[in-house]
What we know:
Elements lengths: L1 H19 L15 H19 L3 H7 L17 E7 L4 H12 L4 E8 L5 H8 L4 E3 L12 H10 L4 E4 L8 H6 L4 E5 L14 H10 L3 E2 L2 E4 L9 E4 L2 E2 L6 H24 L3 E3 L5 E3 L10
Parallel strand pairs: 1-2, 1-4, 2-3, 4-5
Antiparallel strand pairs: 5-7, 6-9, 7-8, 10-11
Helix pairs in contact: 1-2, 4-9, 8-9
GO molecular function, one term: phosphoribosylglycinamide formyltransferase activity
EC number: 2.1.2.2
Protein name: Phosphoribosylglycinamide formyltransferase, chloroplastic
Amino acid sequence: xxxxxxxxxxxxxxxxxxxxxxxxxxxxxxxxxxxxxxxxxxxxxxxxxxxxxxxxxxxxxxxxxxxxxxxxxxxxxxxxxxxxxxxxxxxxxxxxxxxxxxxxxxxxxxxxxxxxxxxxxxxxxxxxxxxxxxxxxxxxxxxxxxxxxxxxxxxxxxxxxxxxxxxxxxxxxxxxxxxxxxxxxxxxxxxxxxxxxxxxxxxxxxxxxxxxxxxxxxxxxxxxxxxxxxxxxxxxxxxxxxxxxxxxxxxxxxxxxxxxxxxxxxxxxxxxxxxxxxxxxxxxxxxxxxxxxxx
Length: 295
């Protein structure tokens, strides 16, 4: 096997060397960082070496992965890249986690807009620093320009948004947006819904209520958004134990840590089109590694 690998490397090197002597300039067809010669060599040798690589061991396949990557080797390439809009009202820590996941490839999507009702919140400042367009909704009282819910829908459509992610957005989502993005708006809530949800249950208020109730468990819930607060279909949850000496702050910190992990996992499934709706209307997440298994 080692001899075959060396032979293959020699063949590739020879092909590259011969192509470098050609004078045809096709650099305009291929953007950097790859030179025209390298791109041409990829095209000329991929077809002749692809069969050889497929029959080799998994170790060799990993070695050449990235050079001879195909749709068969990379199922994600068959799924379209999704465009996301995130709604925040505060620091936007979940927004940041999702944004970082889009950069490292954990989430097969791109955040193309951020919507906030507080123009100077931490999440909005972070978005501006990353070059992400910020939309103020609803607009501040007394604003000269009227920006309606229909205008918001138009703006999101102009960015070709596929999914809307609420990440600490404290305003009720307008009906116009829900109708425009049916089964495409998610929210994360810091309790195990349906417990401790609804109007007025947000932030530390949730964690104080959990501790005061004597509940032994809490944790984040990701759910679909409907016309009411926290009543949409539950998609995913993560359990966090409530300790005997917990304060709202201690519990909030542990729940938030799980929020960051859970929301990224859900966004990954969303962008990979791994969410399946059961006949009774319950959404389920397919495992990335085994489609017959649900998370």
